[in-house]
């Protein structure tokens, strides 16, 4: 069986993709900047070693990187024998944010699948909102907007299906959870399930940017996150998509089920 390269193997979906491939006995290479297979988008000298013997690639889009970097890497991957590319894109943020990158993959000459997930459940337990949840207060510029949050495990399983099965070629899967939630509603679910009080407090985008910068985040990153959360405030991500069911043949996982598991695993201790 041909080897699959997993980029961003230390990330929310990447490590879940790697774990699933391991469970299935699929040969794979887990690549990241600090992993056993070093990979750096900014250092093309790391590319060839990670691509050796690879026929499928899970592409975690390089945030805040020029599109030329992705174009150069996909060209190198196809030239080295990669036949199947699965791109982790995004549903949120507006059509101009990720669609140019999607077109790069679609025009690469390889068989492709595009995954467009919403915001992950796991942002509350192992991502950008985790510290705030543990502190008991979510301060975000999301207003009263709703988002159809999705489980990163569902996204990873869709990626593995696209990498290992037929029937997913030239498909765009918009991946969402089964219901839209506001941040206040998400905080209420976490509070009920975990037994700890978590409150949501809407703030301005400028205040959020300042708070992120104060924690050490870069200005471009802080502004990008504020922009995406502003989209949430406008209910841009509130609609439900059928991508999980199309890709996996089952309904997406619920936020309550996720919160119960996260609590059992001690995510918010």
Automatic annotation (TrEMBL):
Organism: Nonomuraea dietziae
Biological classification of the source: Bacteria, Bacillati, Actinomycetota, Actinomycetes, Streptosporangiales
PANTHER family from the UniProt entry: PRESTALK A DIFFERENTIATION PROTEIN A (PTHR43162:SF1), PTHR43162
Name the UniProt record assigns to this protein: Uncharacterized protein YbjT (DUF2867 family)
């Amino acid at each position: 069986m041909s080897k699959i390269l997993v980029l961003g193997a230390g990330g929310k979906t990447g490590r879940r993709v790697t774990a699933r491939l391991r469970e299935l006995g699929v040969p794979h290479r887990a690549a990241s900047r600090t992993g056993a297979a070093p990979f750096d988008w900014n250092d093309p000298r790391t590319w060839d070693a990670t691509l050796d013997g690879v026929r499928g690639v899970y592409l975690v889009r390089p945030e805040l990187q020029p599109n030329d970097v992705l174009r150069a890497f996909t060209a190198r991957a196809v030239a080295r024998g990669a036949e199947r590319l699965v791109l982790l894109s995004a549903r949120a943020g507006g059509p101009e944010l990720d669609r140019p990158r999607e077109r790069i993959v679609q025009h690469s000459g390889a068989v492709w699948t595009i995954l467009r997930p919403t915001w992950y459940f796991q942002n509350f337990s192992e991502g950008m909102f985790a510290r705030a949840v543990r502190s008991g207060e979510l301060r975000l510029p999301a207003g009263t907007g709703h988002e159809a949050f999705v489980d990163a495990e569902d996204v990873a399983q869709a990626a593995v299906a696209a990498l290992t099965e037929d029937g997913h070629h030239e498909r765009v899967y918009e991946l969402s959870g089964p219901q839209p939630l506001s941040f206040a509603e998400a905080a209420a679910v976490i509070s009920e399930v975990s037994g700890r009080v978590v409150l949501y407090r809407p703030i301005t985008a400028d205040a959020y940017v300042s708070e992120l910068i104060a924690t050490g985040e870069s200005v471009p990153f802080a502004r990008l996150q504020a922009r995406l959360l502003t989209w949430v405030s406008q209910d841009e991500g509130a609609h439900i998509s059928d991508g999980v069911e199309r890709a996996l043949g089952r309904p997406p996982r619920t936020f309550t089920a996720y919160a119960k598991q996260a609590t059992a695993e001690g995510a918010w201790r």
